[in-house]
Amino acid sequence: MILVTGGAGFIGSNFILDWIASERTPVVNLDKLTYAGNLENLAALQGDPRHVFVHGDICDGALVGRLLREHKPRAIVHFAAESHVDRSIHGPADFIETNINGTFRLLEEARAYWQELPQAEKAAFRFLHVSTDEVYGSLGPDDPPFSETTPYAPNSPYSASKAASDHLVRAYHHTYGLPTLTTNCSNNYGAYQFPEKLIPLIILNALNGKPLPIYGDGLNIRDWLHVGDHCTAIRAVLAKGRPGETYNIGGWNEKTNLDVVHTVCNILDELQPDSLLTPHASLLTFVKDRPGHDRRYAIDARKIERELGWRPAETFETGMRKTVRWYLEHAGWIQNVTSGAYREWVGRNYGER
Fold it and tell me: Which fold has domain 2-193+226-252+294-314?
């Protein structure tokens, strides 16, 4: 048994599906079901006794403690987080509450539980904290990629809150001996991603003949990691990672936002030639940049390859094709998540730009 927080979100739900398919052992899934949490992501596990869903908040220490004592997990995999930079600019309070206070409460309950375990179970227990490359700040065009020793320099309320949570996890290992692991990943994409993020937003807008909004000059660079590869990396870290260590997880795919959008449009031109407006790239629209927009992220993922033998299986091209096909084949899921609240958010974030 493992406990997963945020397991109804984009990465968390992909991880649970991958875990049960690969490891075949049970998962307790604790999720608050905010706007980005969606149990429909886990419909394939309906009725499967290996998936135990609990609707709750990681800030609820009594609930977390009860789940730990009741289910006795051998590990906690902590995905639960507010994760969208634009939302953190509009409203940072939720990011402080969930990402910092929530992680603190989870660590406190994990420490109390871990300290009471029998010696063999105590030695085997792990607390795996899933974080982001955004904690490292922004790179210049010729700077080397982020490594595990790159100094932290977060530039948004989101990345600052994740940096704080990383520091708490590190402190709980060094102060109390809690066997923690931290992963810092690059931009994920794939199935079940809420369409506030670039790739699903572009797919949905293109299919509906709407403008494809590109911040600034479109030359901001990110490293792109398919969510399936991220899941296998987390399993590798959980199985073989050294307590107290950090592992950067990247896809070796540095692309500008323009590269990404043109790739999506080219695939859509091929797969959906009868869309409302083709070529889809004709919908591309440059909009006012967001405040404090980091110019470049890049991940040096050699440590996880060297120590744990992990490398991404997907190229950018294969992963993007799988992703576009998934959204084309899941119109019902898209319709269910793009509610009035979603449309209101898109209008608020892009309307003034």
Answer: Rossmann fold (3.40.50)
